Amino acid sequence: MEKNNLTEEQIEELKEQTINRVNKITPIVFKIRGLIMGLPFIFIGLVFFLVSTIGIINNENKVKDGITITGTLVKTEKHLDTKYYDATYQYVVDGKKYEVLDDTLYTEINDIDKTKEIKYNKENPKKAIVKSNNGFSLILFGITAIAIGIIVIYMNYKSSKKKLDKEILN
Questions:
Q1: Who's near 53: CB < 8 A, 6+ residues apart?
Q2: Would you give the DSSP letter of residue 110?
Q3: pLDDT by residue (tens digit) across 30-47?
Q4: C-beta of residue 152 within 8 angstroms of C-beta of residue 41
Q5: If 139 and its partner were Cys, which of 7, 14, 52, 81 is the partner (CB 3.0–4.6 Å)?
Q6: Cβ neighbours, 10 Å, residue 116
Q7: What is the pLDDT of residues 47-70, one digit of tens each?
Q8: How many domains does the chain have?
């Protein structure tokens, strides 16, 4: 086995070159790591936020200038082949009966309210929605996920910067 015959001065110069290279690369690596950890939260949050917002806007446009009345639960059934249940409510406008499907999926039949507020379009009573806060809950979830993603990226950047500064000083 051959031994390197480097002087102390050469070894110190190599150490300094290595440290300089690491110092140039390390911040980039930490930023990429933070992005990899935080971007999925931001992406998922944006999807929930946008889909929920669009859904709420579409529902509100569907029953623009709508009238709110009380609907009665008339039917519950399994949602496709899942563990969830759909609820159908009936409401009466000018003596004529209409039905509307609640867009909330329920895990238990007992959780389904017997009556709910229905908002229908006064021009076309067939167009109706079951009033709920589900869309707003999903918007809040989306905003929370976006905030978590931003915090993860920021905290990763700050902690890696502190760690890097500490390593450089030592």
A1: 135, 139
A2: G
A3: 778 888 999 999 999 999
A4: yes
A5: 52
A6: 19
A7: 999 999 998 888 888 888 899 999
A8: 2
Q: Which helix (H) or strand (E) holds 96?
A: strand 96-101
Q: What is the chain's length?
A: 170
Give the H/E segment covering residue 89.
strand 85-93
| CA atoms within 13 A of residue 32's CA, in its CB half-sphere | 5
For residue 133, the SS3 value is coil
The reply to whether 19 and 103 lie within a common domain is: no
Q: Going by C-beta distance under 8 Å and a sequence separation of 6 or more, which residues neighbour residue 147?
A: 45
Same domain, 56 and 77: no
Whole-model pTM: value is 0.66
What distance lies between CA 60 and its chain's CA centroid?
22
| Domain containing residue 158 | 13-63+134-170
